[in-house]
């Protein structure tokens, strides 16, 4: 299975994440006529149809029946109520199921869909909304190599994707990438507030901090050395950067980050347990 084989995708749910993935796919050359979005309300569907030229429907069963891959893009709280009525259609047509909902275990999805389904769990993050996302992917034993390849094509349309070997690895991805944009937003927020206390206007501090974050991330992505070396290159001995880094280290920043990421991962595990059927 590959994009060249005229794979038809159906998105159950047409919210921000689904719209972003669909937009990325169309921009990277996926034929719009091979994408279907299903949603009870026409409000979001009409926008997608008009701006991207995709097919739309209010009938989830029709979307599943027409698709080689079904992307489940509804809120975790309503996933069961959306998937269970589609079990007969899933069993008849046997599409690959790709879930982008956090916290829903593969076993639960499989049970709700009638069982014996090829399922990929995907954990994208919010920068996917601007095609700069990072997604973790986990496939159950029924997913073929060809299906894995096309799933990568789908998620790489909005950033990068990495496979994990076990479903528990998705919780690690949540801590590393899924929730991580908020960590960087917190750092930027704190830097902006510190700048204001120094006497810089909020507007100027915001622009300087955000541009610096963008530049640092771009350097890290494009550099042939790791981030530790990039940090060292900014730290002139006895200079200003060195003093700031020493202060961060003395305050235990590494311990704080480790504690926060483990708290995130533990909560992801708790949520997965809560959604088990």
Automatic annotation (TrEMBL):
Pathway: Amino-acid biosynthesis; L-proline biosynthesis; L-proline from L-glutamate 5-semialdehyde: step 1/1. One of its GO terms (cellular component) is cytoplasm. Its EC number is 1.5.1.2. One of its GO terms (biological process) is L-proline biosynthetic process. GO terms for molecular function: pyrroline-5-carboxylate reductase activity. NADP(+) binds at residues 12-17, 73-76. Residues 167-271 form the Pyrroline-5-carboxylate reductase dimerisation domain. Pfam families: F420_oxidored, P5CR_dimer. Keywords: Amino-acid biosynthesis, Cytoplasm, NADP, Oxidoreductase, Proline biosynthesis. It is an enzyme of class 1 (oxidoreductase). It comes from the Bacteria. Residues 9-103 form the Pyrroline-5-carboxylate reductase catalytic N-terminal domain. The keyword Lipid biosynthesis does not apply. NADPH binds at residue 60. It is found in: Cytoplasm. It catalyses: L-proline + NADP(+) = (S)-1-pyrroline-5-carboxylate + NADPH + 2 H(+); L-proline + NAD(+) = (S)-1-pyrroline-5-carboxylate + NADH + 2 H(+). Belongs to the pyrroline-5-carboxylate reductase family. Catalyzes the reduction of 1-pyrroline-5-carboxylate (PCA) to L-proline. This is Pyrroline-5-carboxylate reductase. The gene is proC.
């Amino acid at each position: 299975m590959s994009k060249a084989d005229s794979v038809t995708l159906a998105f159950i749910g047409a919210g921000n994440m689904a719209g972003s993935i669909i937009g990325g796919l169309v921009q990277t050359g996926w034929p719009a006529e091979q994408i279907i979005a299903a949603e009870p309300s026409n409000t979001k569907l009409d926008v997608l149809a008009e701006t991207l030229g995709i097919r739309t429907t209010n009938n989830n069963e029709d979307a599943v029946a027409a698709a080689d891959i079904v992307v489940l893009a509804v809120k975790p709280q309503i996933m069961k109520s959306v998937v269970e009525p589609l079990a007969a259609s899933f069993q008849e047509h046997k599409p690959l199921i790709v879930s982008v909902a956090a916290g829903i275990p593969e076993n639960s999805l499989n049970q709700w869909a009638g069982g014996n389904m090829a399922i990929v769990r995907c954990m994208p993050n919010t920068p996917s909304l601007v095609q700069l996302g990072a997604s973790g992917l986990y496939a159950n034993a029924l997913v073929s190599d060809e299906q894995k390849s096309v799933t990568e094509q789908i998620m790489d349309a909005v950033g990068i994707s990495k496979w994990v070997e076990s479903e528990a690895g998705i919780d690690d991805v949540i801590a590393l990438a899924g929730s991580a944009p908020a960590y960087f937003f917190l750092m930027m927020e704190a830097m902006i507030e510190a700048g204001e206390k120094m006497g810089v206007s909020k507007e100027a501090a915001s622009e300087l901090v955000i541009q610096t974050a963008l530049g640092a991330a771009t350097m890290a992505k494009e550099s042939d050395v790791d981030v530790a070396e990039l940090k060292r290159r900014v730290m002139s001995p006895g200079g200003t950067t060195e003093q700031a880094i020493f202060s961060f280290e003395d305050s235990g920043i590494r311990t704080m980050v480790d504690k926060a990421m483990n708290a995130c991962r533990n909560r992801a595990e708790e949520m997965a347990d809560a959604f088990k059927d």
